[in-house]
Amino acid sequence: MTMKFQGTLGLANSAAQSIALKYEASNTSLMETVLHEMTHIIDFKSGLYVETSDRNTDGTLDTVPALSDTQEFLDIYHTYFDRSDVWPYYRDNSSEAFAEVLSQYIMHRLFGSPYATYVPNPYTGDAYDPGNGTGYSPFAATEFYFASLFNKLFEYPRTATVVPYVTTITQKAPINGQVIYGAMPTDSTMTTAYKTIYVADPNKVYDPTGQTDVVKAGADGQKTVRITYSLDANNQLVATETVISDTAVQDQIITKGTQPTSTDTAVAITVVYQEVTDNSLADWQVKVVDNGQAGLVSTATTYILDPTTGVITPATTTTTVTPMKPMIVQYKVGVDKVTAIAYQTEYRDNPTLLKGTQVVVTPGEDGQTTQSVQSYDFIQDGANSHFTNVQYGNPVIIDAQNRMIEEGTYVAPETPDENPAEPSKPEAKPQPVVVKDTKKEILTVATPKEKTPVKEAQLPTTGDKASSFSAIVSSSILLVTGLALSKKLKKDRN
């Protein structure tokens, strides 16, 4: 089937061995279609068989023509046509590729028509013919194969008989008792077709298009034999063969470049990012701990030429000269911002405590302001990696609890009663604890946070001797105990 970008132009019937054509005004286009379909007929005539393996990689096991399914052609097809820069109709159909390339070769050989070229479509990924000769041409690249195939199909050896154009007739008078035999010599010429031999040149650059191949023309061999006749003693004709010319065949020699190639390719440094959570880095710090090293890979390619088919098979070896060492970048994500709020110390008078005595009612506790990390961007740019757009949330404030210290303002009477009553034992009270303060030593006792107001009736009144004596005794005991504890703490510190 012949297909162009605008549709189907011809059909070849394998059963009827016929060709159907769509009319075209261009004689050249019509000839291209005829040659394409004629190649299909030749392919069909070579035989049809059912595939047992998918050698043409079309995804099916089907009936295929023999000529376009030979291993020789399939090697050509997979090398030069099964590529992304070839029009899909010929890239995906080996028999269509076979028909089109032979028809284009004939048009190129007989009429000088240029080979079609293809370029990839950046939008669809499929290749198309730009019509200006630019791009890749699988037809030009495989010319060596189809030139040989054309010679095998159409330039086959022929044997010709040469008859001298000058004939001499000799007439003799009959002689009684004699028989005259025709004894005219005959010449026959046999032609031997030349073969194509491919030779590798290791000093010549490999050219996959074949355009730089050196071709030494071949010449058919010819041998001319002349047969003459004579009569033996028994009057019988005896033929004698004599070689009058013998030209040796000269094979066509095509020299292809197979010079080995070697290329060095740099392997770019990759970057490995490592997050750390210890104190080796500060918050939001980025550090390159290893600069890494670019790698180097050497690729050596050798080319092996098949002297019969001319197919060149590349063999590639890759060697790592310098291994790539990645760059290592460490970074630390910052934590929430926490700011301490120091507590304040407040003082208030307590008329129930002896003057000069301090008691911690509330010990005090620092507060804090916390701003949580809401979002950030980590720009991964190798050695230039950094944090940006760090956003903190609104501060969350925990107020400080101020320290409350009560100072005694009570002064005991100086003159005790002449006949003091037996002092009653004071109720057991928590022992004061001396607390270090920047100003002075402070006694801390377990007291309720809510201060109970001191009633005036609880204070000693004038004339109440028993109450006055009890208050004096209680205050004295409390004072002595506090002084003793204070001296003990000073002694412990010393």
TrEMBL record:
Coiled-coil zones: none
Keywords: Cell wall, Peptidoglycan-anchor, Secreted, Signal
Region (Disordered): 412-434
Alphabetized SUPFAM superfamilies for the sequence: Metalloproteases ('zincins'), catalytic domain
Domain of life: Bacteria
Residue ranges constituting the Gram-positive cocci surface proteins LPxTG domain according to the UniProt record: 459-494
MF annotations from Gene Ontology: metallopeptidase activity
Cited PROSITE patterns: G5, GRAM_POS_ANCHORING
UniProt entry tagged with the keyword Secreted: yes
Name this polypeptide is given: LPXTG-motif cell wall anchor domain protein
G5 domain mapped to chain residues: 326-411
